[in-house]
Amino acid sequence: MSAPLLSVRELGVTYRVRPGGSPPWARARALQAVRNVSFDLAPAETLGIVGESGSGKSSLARALIGTVPASRRQALWQGADLLAMGAEQRRPLRRDIQMIFQNPLGALDPRMTAGEIVAEALTTHERGLPRHEVRSRAAAMLERVGLLPEHMNRYPHEFSGGQCQRIGIARALIVGPRLVICDEPVSALDVSVQAQIVNLLQDLQRDLGLSLIFISHDLGVVKHIADRIMVFYLGRVLEHAAAGELVRAPRHPYTRALIAAAPVPDPAVERGRQATGLGGELPSPLAPPSGCVFRTRCPIVRDACADEVPAMREVGEDHVAACPYDAG
Amino acid sequence: MTLLRVRDLSVTFETGDGTVNAVNGVDLAIGAGQSVAVVGESGSGKSQIMFAIMGLLARNGAAAGSVTFDGTELLGLDEGALNRIRSSQIAMIFQNPMTALNPYMRISHQMTEVLTLHKGMSRRAALAEAIGLLDAMEVPEAATRIGMYPHEFSGGMLQRVLIAMALLCRPRLLIADEPTTALDATVRGQIMRLLADVRARFGTTVILVTHDVGIVAGHCDEMVVLYGGRVMESGPVARIFAAPHHPYTRSLLDAVPRLDRDDERLRSIPGDPLGTNLLPAGCPFAARCPRVEERCHRERPASERPAPDRVVACHRPLEGVA
Ligand SMILES: Nc1ncnc2c1ncn2[C@@H]1O[C@H](COP(=O)(O)OP(=O)(O)OP(=O)(O)O)[C@@H](O)[C@H]1O
Ligand code: SF4
Ligand SMILES: [Mg+2]
């Protein structure tokens, strides 16, 4: 692997929260949304992150773009420490790292036209560009993401969800980023449109040599776009492997359950499958289980699982899982 | 026996920008004890069909056509008679269970109220009945948890509570509108199994409204595919999945990202779902259809029956072998 573009070591994110329904005088508690996450991201590589809601995926993304504070060890961007940077030092990085969000319409300013939205992103980072150049570059980018010239002058509410997401992508890409973090970019879209956007992101990633971090709760979608996948559960990474290998040969019991839960659109397969499926529910992130965070729902749990947080174990080539027992 | 029959149902909404045609001439026949999936993308009219059945359309909405439940016409029925059917024979649950509950009231209160009010049960008997149903819906420690408030439950647990509540009056028909959409993948399967269980144990007819064709495969017998407020195709799930007749059904099934296949690219459908302000003269899918021909834009395809149990509305249906 070439020198990583981004190198994250033992990253954590902690919020101070008051539990829902508690009185205003109750003491705020620490919610550890992300714990001890490490990974490397190479240039032009796509890292997929899957996990259920509240597993910490978005918090990781926000920590990387600096909108929530990370309790560090380290996040190195081409060797420079992201987490130690002040706002001033981060400024040039805001161009290198762009983000695409889940709610396509909500992420766009309703008072600006598509053309203005994309142009504004460009002029924020390149002041003093001549107006006609801004306009032609914005038009070219909108066309690149599959919109028509006449769309330039329309407002967000005049677009479908899929088209809004295309505008969001154009806005992110026009500044020439190295890394684009996509946080659930297709979960609000219909399946037919979802596929369009995933394919578009895949094309752009290849053509522009971008690195992507693609966050989704849908393993099926992630598998299609990612080179490698990290599986999150209650703020921790439980497994990390090449996408094909993770789906073909999952080693962590949670990953196995996730794969078993993914519906296969084929009645013959579905009916033949025994109803395994996980019992129970995600514990509260305010009171995660001791030891292995998955143990309260794990089908192969043992007494020892409550004692110690399992270390990441090498289970194959470039494949690690946080479970000492083989689910085999 | 056909429990619910919908004939030529249309739902329109009058808005400042003109008329919205949400549902356009839909026919359905749902047999007692069946589990039927109504599938479609957002805005295809799935929910409005159900609201029309329940008499719950928004104030600017109007339904035309016919909806008969066990022989009784529901459209235009007076409020009192409709309420009697609604409270005792048809129940509905929604995507977000929180919206159906009063956040300031204990679950015990919300569940027993139905029974004491509508069935004249004593509070004690009602409480026992409610706990029994929570128990049957696999809510752990039901007797304790019934005393809690809605926000003290997780999303999946709350959906169980709602299903239990829906069953209090032993309805003959349960309509579940996207009941698992807001839930996590590993909890989704639990709720789907629970719905199957409800049908088996109580003999309830279940209509599952969903945009997710994936979950239909394992959990329903019959399916109805909607597009632009019209039925594109209907029939037994196994037969439609094996050989869809309608190009839209085919495209929809192909677009689902699959873990069990190594496709390089996802197969998308070009363009966007139909806006409801326009009512195309021809086939609603024509603008996105890979098999479209000139006539499709002009003439609306009629519903045909290529086999006794299948319906398709297309000028150039796909041949099936199943
Ligand atoms: N009160 C209303 N006034 C105007 N239009 C409405 C109203 N209620 C619903 N509609 C429109 O009716 C159409 C069909 O809506 P419906 O809720 O049945 O879609 P759906 O298939 O359930 O979609 P989803 O998957 O998003 O829930 C939509 O275009 C919707 O915007
Ligand atoms: S009627 Fe024509 S446009 Fe509609 S689905 Fe059939 S072939 Fe396609
Ligand atoms: Mg709906």
Task: Write structural notes for this entry.
The complex is a heterodimer of chains A (328) and B (322). Chain A is an alpha/beta fold. Chain A has a domain at 104-176. Chain A contains ten helices and twelve strands. Chain A has helices at 57-65, 87-96, 114-125, 131-144, 161-173, 191-208, 219-225, 243-248, 253-261, 267-272; strands at 6-17, 29-41, 46-50, 74-77, 80-81, 97-100, 179-183, 211-216, 228-233, 236-242, 313-316, 319-321. In chain A, helix 3 packs across helix 4, helix 3 (114-125) packs parallel to helix 5 (161-173) and helix 4 crosses helix 5. Chain A starts with 5 loop residues before the first strand and ends in a 7-residue tail after the last strand. The model of chain A has no long low-confidence stretch (mean pLDDT 89). Chain B has 322 residues and is α/β, with parallel strands linked by helices. Chain B is built from eleven helices and twelve strands. Chain B has an eight-stranded mixed beta sheet, with helices on both faces. A four-stranded antiparallel beta sheet of chain B has the order 2-1-4-5, covered by helices on one side. At the A-B interface, helix 5, helix 6, helix 7, helix 9 and helix 10 of A face helix 7, helix 8, helix 9 and helix 10 of B.
Summarize the structure.
Chain A is of the alpha/beta class. Chain A has ten helices and twelve strands.
Q: In oligomeric terms, what are we looking at? A: heterodimer
- Total beta-strand segments of chain B: 12
List segments of chain A where confidence is low: pLDDT < 50 over at least 5 consecutive residues: none
The proportion of residues forming helix of chain A, as a percent range, comes to 25-40%
Q: In which range does the helix fraction of chain B lie? A: 25-40%
